[in-house]
Amino acid sequence: MHFERSAPGGSKGQFGQNFLAPPKPASLKSGTMITLKIHLFSCLLVGILLLGPAARLVDAEEVDVFLFGGQSNMQGIAKITDLPKETPKEIPRAWFWNGKEFESFRIGETRTSNRPGEFGPELGFALEISKTGRSAYLIKYAASGMPLHHGWNGNRWEGGAPQPNRRNFYPGESATDPNQGTLYREMLKRFQTGLEHLKDRGDTPVIRGFLWMQGEQDSKHEESATAYAASLKRLRDRVAEDVGATKTLPMVFGQVLPHEPAMERFTHRPQVREQMASADERSGQPEAIPKVRMVSTDGFGLLNDTVHYDADGQIRLGKAFAEQVEELSGE
């Protein structure tokens, strides 16, 4: 807004009044009033634009996110038809990422496994975590029969140093490591896509835990079985950094192959199970990883193949995951 300086003797300025005299609002012309209103509105609009990002930050809601990964027992082949009759049809405050959006967790409708009518540990986890009264957003990736160690390429042992484009969950030594396994990259992409979806809608995702169920394939070779604890630490650390979580992201995993005697193909079952037990932060062993817990699955219900968990086993596994991740979060 521009005011003309009054001439000596109190000559009239832009508003048609003596600039040196006290203003008389009643004498303002209508055109000047419109100009003033436009100026005030412009100032208000600029203020809103400047404060807008801060306002959105204030309104952003923190939401709990849990990441799930692994092979067939994470995928889950337990049958929904085998669930107890009292199992609720919808799990309150639980949301599952379907690749496009988070949908309310409706048992029998929300597809959480590769095949309709089947489920993994996410169901028992959601049932248990809903008791906290907080909303939980679940993102899951699973690849049946697939390994973690870099020596594997799918179900074929190739050994040697890490190599590009091997089909495994090997996370590499850095975010740009060209030797990252193709499955790790696919899993990470799914995690990141779900997290970005939450951010885009105005939420602030807080990653509360990483749940892992894998190891059967790694038990089939001595090198991958005896290095499993180191593989787990590398995996947890890389996931934490790659998704922007706290460095000591709480991780809970299940001990595989509880049935004894194991099938012949699991040649190094004792070694992989020992490595898993040693990786638990409470083990007192050199391999212990801070903020990492193992769930023993001894006694959990199994299908006739003695490898995969039935409905009872998966529910117990998921609930144990939730209990342990809650303990870790409270430490």
Q: Structural class of the secondary structure composition? A: alpha/beta
- CATH topology term: Rossmann fold
- Low-pLDDT windows of residues: 1-28, 43-58
Give me the number of helical elements: 8
Helix coverage percent of residues? 25-40%
Mean pLDDT, to the nearest integer, reads: 88
Q: For the record, what is the CATH homologous superfamily label?
A: SGNH hydrolase
In the CATH hierarchy, what is the class?
Answer: Alpha Beta
Count of domain modules: 1
* Helix-strand topology string: HEHEEEEHEEEHEHHEHEH
Any idea what the radius of gyration is? 30 Å
Q: Strand content of the residues, in percent?
A: 15-25%
Tally the beta strands.
11
| Most strands sheet | 7 strands, mixed
Shape: globular
CATH architecture field: 3-Layer(aba) Sandwich
3D structure, described in words:
This protein has 331 residues and is an alpha/beta fold. The protein has one domain: SGNH hydrolase (Rossmann fold, 3-Layer(aba) Sandwich), CATH 3.40.50. The chain is 34% helix and 17% strand. It has eight helices and eleven strands. The protein has helices at 30-59, 72-75, 121-129, 182-200, 222-226, 228-242, 269-279, 311-330; strands at residues 62-70, 78-79, 90-97, 102-106, 118-119, 136-142, 152-153, 156-157, 204-213, 251-254, 292-295. The strands form three sheets. It has a seven-stranded mixed beta sheet with strand order 4-3-6-1-9-10-11, with helices on both faces. Strand 10, helix 7 and strand 11 form a beta-alpha-beta unit. It is globular, with a radius of gyration of 30 Å. It starts with 29 loop residues before the first helix and ends with a helix.
